[in-house]
Amino acid sequence: MPRKIIIDTDPGQDDAVAILLALASPEEIELLGITAVAGNVPLELTAKNARKVCEVAGRADVKVFAGCDRPLAHTLVTAEHVHGKTGLDGPDLPEPTMSLQDQHGVDFIIETLRAEPSGTVTLCPLGPLTNIATALQKAPDIAEKVQEIVLMGGAYFEVGNITPAAEFNIYVDPEAAEIVFKSGIPIVVMPLDVTHKALVTAPRNDAFRALGTDPGRVVAEWTDFFERFDKEKYGSAGAPLHDPTVIAYLIRPELFSGRHVNVEIETQSDLTRGMTVADWWRVTDRAPNAMFMGDLDADGFFALLTERIGRL
Ligand code: RIB
Ligand code: CA
Questions:
Q1: How many Cβ atoms sit within 10 Å of the Cβ of residue 255?
Q2: Catalytic residue list
Q3: Rounded to the nearest whole angstrom, what is the distance from the C-alpha of residue 228 to the centroid of ligand 1?
Q4: C-alpha 15 chain-centroid distance
Q5: Which CATH class for the 3-309 domain?
Q6: What residues does each domain of the chain span?
Q7: Of 38, 40, 270, 305, which one has the fewest beta carbons inside 10 Å?
Q8: Residues near ligand 1 (Cβ within 6 A)
């Protein structure tokens, strides 16, 4: 029985690979829709990029919605320096022919959770949590209907990537993250602690290219572009492939390990805004509210990803 999910995303090359992985895995995943959010690049571009990715997979039938165009309480911070000015730099992709849905992404999330049986829809945020938090504020009744939130965001041992203290998705909208982490909904977190162990090394990127398919080539060219910033910054053997870890968890959770701990979000301090304060060593009596992942089987992750992309 495939798991019903909504992907909330700010594509972003790594978001794009996560969407392709979901679309390549119909036995495990039924993608109810994609909601775009402002993040890596402004909303108009993330909403366009989400449609470009669906068309790379030949899936112009997927419902794509535009959500919130700015964080709850801050001005938008984007990441063109990482993802390029289109947010999906690398391969030349045609303008999408599929159109956006008319409904606002937040209303799609609310309507879907109210319509589906309780506990059967998983939310998969891959960007700032603005859409998810706005849906929870507008319709508090949906919190108990969500099966699970599996998100990419945060950091503990890896500390920050946009500031010394914070990971980008949480930093952009810390108030939204606070609402999500205090919602009582079961949460699985893929932080930088995991994604920085999912490096697209040259052999791994060659394996995408060796698929000999258009999606395989596109993924390799996204990585060729995306990796230049991170390899320079970290001196690493490849760029971390953040967002596909969320979808891989839905397909093969045994690839990941972590701890169920308390995670709180810094929203008051400019210095540490967006920090995910994970009580990894359980030194407080604060109730655990998230499965905070710490490690993954990287070879297993890339084997799964390559095999599935090869199906498209
Ligand atoms: O910090 C990494 C996260 O920020 C990823 O989701 C990437 O796509 C960007 O949104
Ligand atoms: Ca993202």
A1: 21
A2: 242
A3: 15
A4: 6
A5: alpha beta
A6: 3-309
A7: 270
A8: 10, 12, 14-15, 39-40, 126-127, 152, 161, 167-169, 242-243
